[in-house]
Amino acid sequence: MTTLADPVPGGRPADLGRVAALTADLAARGVHGIVLAYVDTAGVGRVKTIPTARLEAAVARGVGMSPVFDTFLADDSIVSTDVLGSPDGDLRLYPDLDQLVVLARQPGWAWAPVDRITQEGERHPGCARTFLRRIVADAAERHGLAFKAAVEVEWAFGLGSAPRGEFVPAVSGPAYGATRQVELSDCTADLLAALAAQGVDVDQIHPEYAAGQFEVSAGALDPVAAADRSVLVRQTIRAVAQRHQLRVSFSPAYLAEGVGNGGHLHLSCWRDGVNLHAGGDGRHGMTAAAESFVAGVLARLPALMAVTAPSPASYLRLRPSQWAGVFTAWGRETREAALRIVTGTSGCQDQDANLEVKPVDLAANPYLALGCVIAAGLDGMAAARTLPREITGDPARYGPDEAAALGVERLPVALPEAVERFRADTVLRTALGPVLADAVSAVRLGEAAAVDGLDDAQVAAAYRWTY
User: Which of 114, 123, 321, 411 has the smallest number of CB atoms closer than 10 Å to its CB?
Assistant: First the structure.
């Protein structure tokens, strides 16, 4: 069941009709408390928790939380805009019962994402989950479109016994190596069991490139549920790692050098049950609508970086020739392109074909990232944008003249540059609305100011254990 409805004072009618039975079931399963989770503008997971017995009250009246968190920075300092950042006011957190799950490795706890509304019952303009739901609903109503989405989750296992501020890889050995899988087989098997118990279908889990690094890929869902799932998966990874005396970092750059953690987005557009990224007359089987969607995302990539790569640590990861996708380029199965066209195995394209957006990391609020990427793609559809020439290989090899002829541009190399591009982009700012758009700018500039004068190692250390 998926309501995809804004909460209202008094509660969603569908939720009120089932919350008593749900509360009794949770209590019978030994659940004593419920984590109410959301992600702030800086990309940090924030929570309030309630006793299980208070779930019915939370569904009916919400749970109070200050709007000031919309302008928190990753280090918990606060910036402000013309309407956000003051100590005044209150919001109500409403749990989404469709996504409530008992946590398999946090005994006694359940988890649910929340929407935030004002005390007067209006949408909170700073609520990222509400923003994404609105983008998805508008696409369905105006264009007959639906989406499937997934967020890749990469992280690094560190030794829990290491000094608090340091990162010591929990495993060594070659990238994607069998050695790493064997050394952490108990932990990763426990993780798979926990995710299965929570209803998360995992496509794959494997060692990644960098020191101590792993990746898990879960199945695609509608965008709101996919963003919820990415938050839940990270909560679960942390809980499992702790049980195995390990620590985890989801930071884009947990070390100053080398490959960092990505959070690539996978997205496909559907109409009347048909995947628009397959079976068409365009390049690699795309329909004209899918090509225009990809072209819209490509055109807005520099501005999107303020949302998809929102941390100073993001720009330590976004370096050429490291599969991070740092140029405005697209290609079929081209892992150095910012946009990778995934066509899927022969015979499965109608289900598997999708767009991968690579310059994204897990410092990004997944609701903002997915919503803004969809908004950019929809604008491309509306304008019937055409894709430039496809690239192959590494775009870093092009000289300035060849790159310009191909439309290949280096993406922003620092956060202030991304903010400048974002501020000039009326499509993204209009999609977000003025309150949320101004919060994005203020928080990003606040993050940049907070690390001014630090070297790369100090920046990596500052964000190592934040996300």
Answer: 321
